[in-house]
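Mods, move this if it's the wrong board.
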Amino acid sequence: MSQIKHRQSRLVHGLQHPVKATQFVLSKFRSQQGQRIAFWDRHFRNIPIERVVAAVDEYWKTYRCWSKVQDLIGGWTDKTILDVGCGYTSVLNILGGGDRYGLSIEIEDLRDRPGYFLNKDIRWINGTAERLPFTPGCFDVVFCNNGVDHYESPQGSVDEMVRVLKPGGWVVLSINIFETDIGARDSQHHFSFTREKFLGLLTQFDVMFEKISPVAAQISRLLEGRVIDTPEEKEMIVVARLKT
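Not the wrong board. Structure tokens:
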């Protein structure tokens, strides 16, 4: 995005935006669901959907190897696609076609909350990754962007993706990657993954592409016009195909 500024630290950004900093502190005293809703409100509420979609587009093209994803999977219009744990800023917004389903545990809260403009071409469904509310073998592609380390059962969530995929179906995953397993990081991240540990969840897939991004990018940062160097917290992008 053209308005991206020079990289700056979280501290400097917080000092420049005291209202956001106060909201962040207060959100820590809420339940886990309350913290998630507070995060969405802080970054996305009342922002025009066009700006949100532009940030999603930039996020995938710059940090998520979008051209490679499309080269491997092909077009979208003839496919049934699920985004697990996606929320408001789903990659589904930029596909431009296909039978699209977005699943999130807080989607009902966002649907009924003023200031959010959910894409009407996407079927938004409330649910959890460990118990996907779909019949077996109904999706061609499953996305899960920075979700697996949030779930109570990472392997259970991947097994559910396997269950709902058609034979030869695709997954597109991203995850924070660390040099060593540091365990639970906070109330939202129950697990930490090394490259080897994460790939160990994908034994039922053939990994067709993987890459480590040097920046742990967030769409919220792009909307604020900033990119932050995070040398201790990189992200891994994986495109894999279900073994037949």
